Amino acid sequence: MNTAIRELRFSPNPQARSLALGRSFLVALIYENPSSTYVMNIQLGILDILRPAGMELLVHPCQGDSATFVKDVQTLIERQRLAGVILPPPYQRTNG
Predict the structure, then answer these.
(1) What is the 3-state secondary structure (H, E, C) of 21-76?
(2) For residues 31 and 28, what is the distance between their CA atoms, to the nearest angstrom?
(3) pLDDT tens, residue by residue, 2-45
(4) pLDDT at residue 96 in the model
(5) What per-residue string of b and e applies to 23-43 under the rule 16 or more CB within 10 Å gives b?
């Protein structure tokens, strides 16, 4: 069987794996910074960690000052069944 997998260059479908195992292999990067260089550098760093772990990255721009921001993020998490969310600044806020 392993020979056939190698010869056919089989690669598991992430969505099928997610359904079969009951968990997602998808992490979302939710960002607001419009700088393409900033976003690209963050993506490359995240992908260096996610790829060896068999995870995929969903990139999702948002407006943090939107009245529906939290609800929109919650909806995204639920619909995509995300394994995780990365919120770079300015979304990280401190109390005070």
Answers:
(1) HCCCCEEEEEECCCCHHHHHHHHHHHHHHHHHHCCEEEEEECCCCCCCHHHHHHHH
(2) 9
(3) 787 677 676 666 556 555 556 678 999 998 877 888 889 999 99
(4) 45
(5) ebbbbbbbbbeeeeeebeebb
